[in-house]
Amino acid sequence: MELSREELFLRIRRDSWQEGLSMRALARKYGVHRRLVRDALASPVPKPRKTPVRSSPRLEPLKKAIDEWLLGDLEAPPKQRHTVQRILTRLRQECGADIAYSTVWDYVSRRRREIAEAAGAAPTAGFVIRHNRPGMDAEVDFGEAWVDLAGERTKCFVFALRLAYSGKAVHRITTSCGQEAFLDGHVHAFRTLGGIPGGQIRYDNLSPAVSRVIHKSRSREEHPRWEEFRRHFGFTPFYCEPGLRGAHEKGGVEGQVGYFRRNYLTPVPRVDSLDELNASFLEFERAEEGRRIGMRIRTIGQDFLHESVLLLPQPTDGFETGAVFTPRVDRYGMIAVRVCRYSVPARFIGRSVRVVLRSSDLVVFHGRTEIARHPRLTAKGAERVVLDHFLEVLLAKPGAMAGSEALDQARREGTFTAAHEAFWAGAKSAEGDTEGTKQLVHVLLLHRHLEHRDVVAGIRSALAVGACTADVVALEARKAAQADGRSPTVAVTGPAPALPGPEPSEVVSLSAHRALRLPADQRPLPALERWDQLLNQSRKDVP
What we know:
This protein has 543 residues and is of the alpha/beta class. 41% of the residues lie in helices and 14% in strands. The strands form 4 sheets. Strands 1, 2, 3, 4, 7 and 8 form a 6-stranded mixed beta sheet that branches. A hairpin with a 2-residue loop joins strand 10 (334-337) and strand 11. Helix 16 (433-445) runs parallel beside helix 18 and helix 17 packs across helix 18. The model is unreliable at 492-511 (pLDDT under 50).
């Protein structure tokens, strides 16, 4: 086994002390020169190897010209300074030099830094420890992370806000790193921390906050909505320098994002929704309160307990973090928002609606009434179509039901269950494709007023007695709710739309009534004797 130089020195010194071996014997035993044995006996630490100074006879007469060019670069615009290739070209053209590129590169890379430091243009590299006061400063950053979301690997973004004094950090993951997610992350962090830092919050020059960086200054042209947001919450932003130098100005949160990703997002998490993952983040952050950062005596939780009471209170009124749009509903009952399409109830076709796009969802309003809500889509050209939005159209066009995109998405989401499929098949078998599909649409309309599980229970009960009609499903659904001790009707948030169909005065034929296959009515007939007595009284005798 080959010994390291340090181990070899220690063994030579030990044998010389314990066995009294001479330098010649020690050199023979370890197969080394007597000069190395002499060095080992003189000091237990080997001398560092000397780096040979290589001379370049061809470059030596050219160094003065190169230094002059590099010194002139200090006053030149950054994009018009000498590169190594440009210096090599000038040496060949102006001095007739025949020299290798690597030789020039080695010299220029060293001398450029030395000349800049000698002229005071480049300060000595180093870091200064920042004094963090409790409750004052914080840092914010976005980081990337991959998540298996509903069975599909999706690129997500982790928002992190970290208090500089205690190291307490709050995280929130979204599928977007746009301004909506940026603002929503702040609101979540302030709510979780119970207050707002009273000093500065440090940021990169990210586009949700900064519209333009003013050249060679700390001034920034801020995004108007971001400026409104920070004034509402009353905190002061601090924008770091662009590039790597700026990352060192908020190194705490830069390391926090990577630490959190390695420890809590590895292996790649598998979840059905990001709400589920964000809920688990709260447990992760509680576990982090027992950790000590570096050589600190107190834990994160102990420092935050002292810091939390010094945070500024939050404003009493809220701030809408979502972006507002006013698209027009097309003839397909769809609206386009940020290269994605979403469905709205068909009765709003041709109207303009108000849309609030948040980091995780999209809400559609007509006036002040909410008419639709969708999870936010991120893939370009993605569509989300809700079957319930097109039921009135399908009553008039039942043939479009089978091949509709709304039905396909309802099947994939699990809202159109196997019970619905069985009911549809039974209704078409009993009444034909058109009327059977209409019966299915009427059953789907029940979901607007009854809970999903009650309607499914009603479908199963109706199929058990062979009655594939919406009336039986409605009756059995209400019975299922009452059997569980619940109210059978779900509160309706908006007015119910008028549905096409038979007039209320239309009389159902006896054959159609028998086709329902309802069970026999066992209730006793009403007693009419007291009503007959009223017929024999005069008008003035009636009280």
